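I'll show a typical protein example:
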Amino acid sequence: MAEVKYKRPGWFTQNFFNRPVGWLSRLGISPAGAQTLAVRGRKSGQIRTNPVNPFEIDGRTYLLAPRGTTEWVRNLRAAGEGELRKGNRARRFRAEEVADSDKLPLLRLYVDRWAWEAKDFLGVGKDATDEQLREIAAENPAFEIRFEDQ
């Protein structure tokens, strides 16, 4: 899987989006389905947290990285496991990276559900063709997550 792209969040996103979304998620309020990903840092060994948008397709849960190969992606690749947190509930999971050839339905759902942010990060919106989504698949890591309590 190629580590092609990483779109660093801007000051506005870090300070007026990610922090409040993370704070709300810790309170159990989930704007647009956001939850807090907790994963062990590959270098520090410390738990790192980040707001993410988990979603389900056919009863399976996924995470997609619309900003590309972010720090949470690198950490999750190294750790292979983590937690999704919402309020005082934490669900441990194992993660398996999704092959680029299997990402089309994930990307389609992501751009349909989060079009308001996807266009900035992915470069495509709801009107994207399947071919356009296939072209960006390698730049946007995705993971299937399997919860320990299932």
